[in-house]
């Protein structure tokens, strides 16, 4: 059971990754992202998740430097965007990202989406970056089981992480089982359902545990051993999102939340996207 913000999961290559981090999707470059990252680090977060397409890597890097946090204390993730996929273009995109972030190495580099006929070549580039010591772990994002199976046939390294949309309305049981069986750490983006937390069960459990609906969902993720990166730009909300280590959900409540599943996506379907 995760009992504090600094607790980490051990990835399949031995690297340790925090269970909870700050996501910065749609957070504006400049002061907005710098303030969010600064607030997270002040609140004790040790993981920041960005991506090339978020266009805020420079601000993330500046906030990290200004915070004074030791580089080895912070777990930093970014992702290669779809238009940069392919072998040589991924290596170039990586160089651009680390330059913007102002770091020499990344803790985790992900393929952002499974672009058909490209993601296997992209993965080959990630394997090279990993073998050359520029990245401590490599993984994927938005991969279904069949994408992971396709990758497995041609890859040398098993992804350390699969970051996907995951919440009580989209529980992805088959994918979660597959990832557990293959020692791939699942990670939840959009865990708070883009703010759609107005549900009777969440209200009931929030009252039962003396927490907010958002805190209930974050704890639900952690109780299922899913790494979680809720996004916020509000310092108080960033602190609240991390205030989930003084309780755990009873097993029947974990199951009741899982039973809310409607296979409902708030983001795109990895089998049907056009960007």
UniProtKB/TrEMBL annotation:
The record marks 79 as: Lowers pKa of active site Tyr. Keywords: NADP, Oxidoreductase. GO terms for molecular function: oxidoreductase activity, acting on the CH-OH group of donors, NAD or NADP as acceptor. Substrate binds at residue 112. Residues 30-262 form the NADP-dependent oxidoreductase domain. The keyword NADP applies. CDD domains: AKR_AKR5G1-3. This is Glyoxal reductase.
């Amino acid at each position: 059971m995760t009992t504090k913000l600094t607790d980490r999961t051990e990835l399949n290559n031995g690297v340790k990754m925090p269970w909870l981090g700050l996501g910065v999707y749609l957070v504006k470059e400049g002061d907005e992202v710098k303030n969010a990252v600064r607030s997270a680090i002040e609140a004790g977060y040790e993981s920041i998740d960005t991506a090339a397409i978020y266009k805020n890597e420079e601000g993330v890097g500046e906030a990290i430097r200004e915070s004074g946090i030791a580089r080895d204390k912070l777990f930093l993730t970014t992702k290669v965007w779809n238009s940069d996929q392919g072998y040589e273009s991924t290596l170039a995109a990586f160089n651009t990202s680390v330059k913007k972030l102002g770091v020499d190495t990344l803790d985790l580099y992900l393929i952002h989406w499974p672009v058909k006929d490209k993601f296997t070549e992209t993965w080959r580039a990630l394997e090279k970056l990993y073998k050359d010591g520029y990245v401590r772990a490599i993984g994927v994002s938005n991969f279904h089981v069949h994408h992971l199976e396709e990758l497995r046939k041609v890859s040398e390294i098993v992804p350390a992480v699969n970051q996907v949309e995951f919440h009580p309305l989209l529980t992805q049981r088959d994918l979660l089982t597959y990832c557990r069986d293959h020692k791939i750490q699942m990670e939840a983006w959009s865990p708070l359902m883009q703010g759609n937390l107005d549900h009777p069960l969440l209200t009931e459990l929030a009252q039962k545990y003396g927490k907010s609906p958002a805190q209930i969902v974050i704890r639900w993720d952690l109780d299922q051993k899913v790494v979680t990166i809720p996004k916020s730009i509000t310092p108080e909300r960033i602190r609240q999102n991390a205030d989930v280590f003084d309780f755990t959900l009873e097993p029947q409540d974990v199951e009741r939340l899982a039973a809310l599943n409607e296979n409902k996506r708030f983001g795109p379907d990895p089998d049907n996207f056009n960007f």
